[in-house]
UniProtKB/TrEMBL annotation, chains A, B:
Residues 214-313 form the Peptidase M20 dimerisation domain. It comes from Haloferax denitrificans ATCC 35960. This is Amidase. It holds the Pfam family Peptidase_M20. The keyword Hydrolase applies. Keywords: Hydrolase. GO terms for molecular function: hydrolase activity, acting on carbon-nitrogen (but not peptide) bonds, in linear amidines. NCBIfam families: hydantase (TIGR01879). It comes from the Archaea. InterPro entries: Amidase_Cbmase, Bact_exopeptidase_dim_dom, Peptidase_M20, Peptidase_M20_dimer.
Length: 415, 415
């Protein structure tokens, strides 16, 4: 099987021309659901799927599927699917998403040209709004496809201007009516850029992901008392910022300790607000948004527990009131052993150095892993940069990882 | 000498009617420099000064002076002055400022009615924009009168809408041309509400302030590195919020330690901003605004030094970059011994329990203490509340403190 590097490069560069942005360095794009760039990106992708002889369907939230049903296969067998997404963050890069979608299409074309005769249908998929750039809900399309979010809830989501997903999809002509259920797929494989430096550090051509970390988000509130910063003696204060500072350090320490046994464990207070936030008033309230991740759900639970312990201590020692709300909890996802085995064998067959690793970022594959056997491959990212016009993967590296993707799917679809 | 409680009450309540605000609890007002309320407040005050036979002058920044030159005095002798301010913070109270200005006028009337024959002229003063509510510069009028800020700089100050102090004063007819130099005063005494609970706690009728704390403001910046909150391991982070949290606790600890020897010492991080302030990004930069006060300038210096030490340690231990800019340093002010003695004697003569204390809030008197002998008296504040419609001092308490004020000035002006 031969991957046509030039054809893949042309597909990615022509796709990148839609929604392209000015950048001092690199090549960037903005493709948000329902924009004119999104319409163009989708229409071109459908054209290319059809040019490869695939049967295209679009579901209610604009997910696009192209099925290859060669004579060798049992058309009623559960298909093997692969793909990714085509949307971007604002001023994002040109590989995050498109490499996996056009890589899957290139994989089909490579199989066709090599005379591969799969026993199962092969499905190429592009999921809507993976980035959450328009509606703030990441992995939106795959959440609906896998039943995690209802179609009606999704279509009623509103962007910052009050425009719904339904309106956006209708405007660009991608409010489809086809029903495609990934739970009926035999397996799923996604190729994505790493967005990290482990592959380049190890000089590996492909990453074989064994798990995707779960994410827990919490909102923490620490409430003290607003007082005059001059006339309130230190011993009479209930300073919410000082208390919250102890909490931030407790969270950091707990995450560092748990990371000694589970390296993927991280805990971050990334967002915070102070009230009244005036130089001469003792802070009355601090609210923090936490992001807690690990490949072990239990570690995440322990980290949240450590947060509760810290807050209880602050209530006792500092007279503040506190609250913690764990408003999101996405458990970690394990990739299927047979997908891992197929990917390892594919890399070996194509003489590509493969590195086993976990993904700390969310991907559509996390949703798919809940309903079918799933695999996730990474291509190297230069300097680990993503979500930026400086995001880059060399064309040869794109082709190498796409070759492993195609071989993995060929193998999974062969029986 | 008899203070007319009813007349004082009427003066304060009629003054409070200008700029009055709706409040669920209490009585509030908003009087910002140059507003229609400010015009009314000023015009009424001038009327009342003239009704008492005082000779009114208005200087270039709208400070209002009313001089009583009775036959008993040497008109060329250095006058004894007293007063306060008439502006308010937005939605402020009705005593903060007006008690001292109308209290001084009531003091003159009481002296006149009691046949007091001072050896020196007696001056009543109301300073412009003590609160900084319009231009963000506190004690503006007294800063100009005492030469700390030039007239031209002050008149060129712009409010949030780009309107200058000059425009505001011209509009309300208080851009005066009289020159009054407090450095030529023999002494100055201000009566103000306490804005604290020490007087009510001690059941004292008047506070005799011995010093006004100095204020140092610093801006601190802690710069780490923005990283993905999922894919950046704990040990690879340079988290600006975690580092800033250590700093906040260091500042708190240092202030607590210094407060064991200098009770007035306080250090507050009241305002902070986080960049980029996103839940899933390790914080790249935190900026904090510090407020450091004490009655000893050396303690303030030591507290700033402790801040520098903390930041240097964070640079070494956490790999962050830091900076600290001490952009304001107003030294503490001592009240003159002869003013303190006159106030103590006045309280004793009127059988009022007096409490010696310091002021942790800034007052015009801090500027006046730099150019003449100054004294500051406090009246009790219910629950210590100020800058709020809930600010309250009972009318009898107003009269009691005004009696001590009048007696203090009578004594100072007697030779």
């Amino acid at each position: 099987m031969n991957i046509d590097t030039e054809r893949l490069r042309r597909d990615l560069q022509e796709n990148a021309a839609f929604g392209d942005v000015d950048a001092d360095e690199g090549v960037g794009r903005t493709v948000l659901t329902g924009s004119e760039a999104d319409r163009a990106v989708r229409e071109r992708f459908v054209d290319r799927l059809e040019a490869a002889g695939l049967d295209v369907r679009v579901d209610a939230v604009g997910n696009i599927f192209g099925r290859w049903t060669p004579p060798s296969c049992d058309p009623s067998a559960a298909p093997v699917a692969f793909g990714s997404h085509l949307d971007s963050v604002p001023r994002g890069g040109i590989f995050d998403g498109p490499l996996g979608t056009y890589g899957a299409l290139e994989g089909v074309r490579a199989m066709q040209e090599a005379g591969v005769a799969p026993a199962r249908p092969v499905e190429v998929a592009s999921f809507t709004e993976e980035e959450g750039g328009r509606f703030g809900v990441g992995t939106l399309g795959s959440s609906v496809a896998t039943g995690k979010l209802s179609v009606d809830e999704a279509l009623a989501l509103e962007d910052d201007d009050g425009v719904t997903l339904r309106d956006h999809l209708e405007r660009v002509g991608f409010a489809g009516s086809d029903a495609v259920d990934p739970a009926e797929w035999d397996a799923w494989v996604e190729l994505h850029i790493e967005q990290g430096t482990r592959l380049t550090g190890a000089n590996a051509g492909v990453g074989v992901v064994d798990s995707i970390t779960g994410i827990t988000n919490c909102e923490v509130a620490v409430t003290g008392e607003a007082d005059h910063a001059g006339s309130t003696p230190m011993y009479e204060r209930s300073d919410a910022l000082a208390a919250a500072s102890e909490f931030v350090l407790d969270l950091e320490r707990a995450a560092e300790e748990l990371a000694t046994t589970s390296e993927a464990a991280v805990g971050t207070a990334g967002r915070g607000t102070i009230e009244p936030n005036a130089r001469n008033i003792v802070p009355a309230e601090v609210r923090l948004q936490l992001d807690i991740r690990d490949v072990e759900h239990e570690t995440m639970d322990r980290l949240v527990e450590r947060c509760r312990t810290s807050l209880a201590r602050l209530e006792r020692n500092r007279g503040v009131e506190t609250s913690i709300s764990r408003y999101r909890d996405s458990p970690p996802s394990r990739m299927a052993d047979r997908c891992l085995a197929a990917a390892d064998a594919a890399a070996a067959a194509r003489s590509v150095d493969a590195l086993r690793l976990h993904s700390a970022a969310m991907h559509d594959t996390a949703n798919l892993a809940a309903v079918t056997d799933a695999g996730l491959l990474f291509a190297p990212s230069r300097d680990g940069v993503s979500h930026s016009p400086r995001e880059w993967t060399d064309w040869d590296d794109c082709a190498t990882a796409t070759g492993v993707l195609a071989e993995t799917v060929r193998s999974l679809a062969s029986d």
